[in-house]
Amino acid sequence: MDPIREHELFETRRALFRRGGSVAAASGLMSLLARDGLFSTPALAGSPTGGDDRQPPVPLHFAPKAKRVVFLHMVGGPSQMDLFDYKPVMNDWYDKDLPESIRSGQRLTTMTSGQARFPIAPSKYKFAQYGQNGMWVSEMLPHTAKMVDDLCFVRSMQTEDINHEPAMSRMQTGNQLPGKPCIGSWISYGLGSMNDDLPTFVVMVARPTNREQIQAISARLWSSGFLPGEHAGVSLRSAGDPILYIQNPQGVPVGVRREMLDGLNALNELNLRQMGDPETHTRIGQYELAFRMQASVPELTNTAGEPESTYQLYGEEARKPGTFAASLLLTRRMLERGVRFVQIYHNNWDHHGNLPGRMAYQCKDVDQPCYGFIQDLKRTGMLDDTLVIWGGEFGRTIYSQGGLSHDNYGRDHHPRCFTMWMAGGGSKAGLIHGETDEFSYNVVKDPVQIRDFHATLLRLLGYDHERFTYRYQGLDQKLTSVDPAHVVKELMA
C-alpha cells in the first residue's frame, strides 16, 4: 500500500483536524499582505498591544497590565543577605554555629552537608535605607538604590530545589523536570507576535566580567517543550553572526535564495497537506522569518546611532558587545521594534567561595545597566506596559561554606528564601513584600512560591493561570503545573 495512503487510513481525528494547518499559513500570508498594503482587515477592538491591531491567539481572560516581559536571570543564585535582606543582628553571631532549630533538619547540598560546623557569616557590606519605602540596599548596588521606589521587591521567594539545574528549570518552566515549555514560549503561544521581522521571543547569554565559576546553562531553558516549535526562544549571539544561519551562503545572491525558499516552501506545503504535521507549518514560517531577519537583525544590532547620553545612562560597558549592559541596550531596541519577550542570563552568581572577591564584579556588571534600562523605559513610556523581572533560581545560606574570616567567606545554595524584584508592567512600585527571620533562613511572613510568582506574572499579562492551558498527552498542561498556585495580588498595582 502507498505509505501516504496508509498514513491517512490510520491517522487520528486530532491529526485529521491538524490538516487545517494550511489555513494558518494562509492567515500568515494575509498578515504579510496587510503589512505591505495589499490586504486590509478591520482594526480589532480591545487589542492589548497598543498600536498593533492583532488579537492574541489565545483570548485574554482579564484586561492586561503588561504586554512585554524582560526576564533578567542571575545564574547561580545571588546572596540575598549581601544585597537586599539586611540582617545587622548577625554581626553578633559571627562564627557561631547556626542553631539547629533554625535549620530544622533541612536537606543540604553535598558541598556543605559534610561540614562539622555551620558558622554564621554576617555580610561584610554596609547597608542604608532608600526611597519612600525605606528599602535596605547594600553599598554594592548604588544605582539600584536610587530607583527603589520604581521597584517591587519580593523578599520571601521560595523554591523546592536545592541544585542549579532543577532550580533553573523550575524558575523558567514551572517544573524541575526537562521537556516543559519555558515562560517565554508560553507567552509567545498566548499573546503571539507584535512584529513581522523579528522573533517573538529572544534570548541572550551575557558575558560576566569575572568568570571564576561559570554555571552551565543549556538551550532547554528557552525550549518550547510540547508547544509548537515556533514558540522557542531565538538566541542572539554577541560575536559573529547575531543569529546563526540567516545569512546567505557566500556566492548566493538574495534572488537565488528567494527562489530556493519558494521552491522549498512549495514542497513543505505539499508535505503539510499530505501528512498534517503542524511542525511543517512551523518550518515554513521560520524560513520566511529568517529571510526577513537578514535585513532587520543588522539594523537592530547596529547601535552606532545611539547618542552619547545612552552610554552615560547604561555605562561604558554598553559599548562592548556581549556584556550585560550591551544586552540591555539591545533589549530596549528590541522592545521598540515589537519583540514580546526578552530573556537575559548573567552568570557567575554561584558564590561558594570568595564571595567578596567576586561580588564586586557581579554588581558592577548589572547595577548601572539595570538602572539605566529602567530609566530608559520610563523616558519612552514603555515601562508602563513592560514587566521587568530580576532574580536568580534560589538564595544563599547565612552560614559559610569552607573557611571564614570577616573579609572572606562563601555561601551554599539556599531554597527557603531569596529576593527578586519587578518593575513596571502593572507591578506595585515601591512595595516590599514578605519577611525572613533574623538569619535570612526561613520566611516568616507572606511566602511566595515560584508557581505563585508565575500565576501573578500571567495575571499581569491578562491570563488566568488555571485556564491558560495547552492540551498535550491527554492533559490540559499549565505553566503552574498541578500544584496549587495563587495570584499574589499584593504585588499588583
**Describe the biggest sheet?**
9 strands, mixed
CATH topology of the domain at 63-102 and 121-239 and 321-491: Alkaline Phosphatase, subunit A
Q: Whole-number average pLDDT? A: 87
Indicate the proportion of strand residues: 15-25%
- Number of distinct helices: 14
- Architecture of the domain at 63-102 and 121-239 and 321-491, CATH level 2? 3-Layer(aba) Sandwich
Show unreliable segments.
1-7, 16-51
CATH class call of the domain at 63-102 and 121-239 and 321-491: Alpha Beta
Span from first to last CA?
A: 63 Å
Coarse shape:
globular
Structural class: alpha/beta
Spatial extent as radius of gyration = 24 Å
Percent of residues in helices: 25-40%
Number of strands: 17
Notes on the structure:
- It is a single chain.
- This protein is an alpha/beta fold and 493 residues long.
- It has a domain at 63-102 and 121-239 and 321-491: Alkaline Phosphatase, subunit A, CATH 3.40.720.
- It contains 14 helices and 17 strands.
- It has helices spanning 3-10, 13-18, 21-35, 80-83, 100-103, 142-145, 164-173, 183-191, 254-275, 278-301, 308-314, 324-336, 355-380, 450-460, and strands at 68-74, 127-130, 135-138, 151-158, 201-206, 234-235, 341-346, 386-391, 395-400, 411-414, 418-423, 432-433, 435-436, 443-445, 448-449, 470-472, 475-477.
- The strands form 5 sheets. Strands 1, 4, 5, 6, 7, 8, 11, 12 and 15 form a 9-stranded mixed β-sheet that branches. A two-stranded antiparallel sheet has the order 2-3.
- It starts with a helix and ends in a 16-residue tail after the last strand.
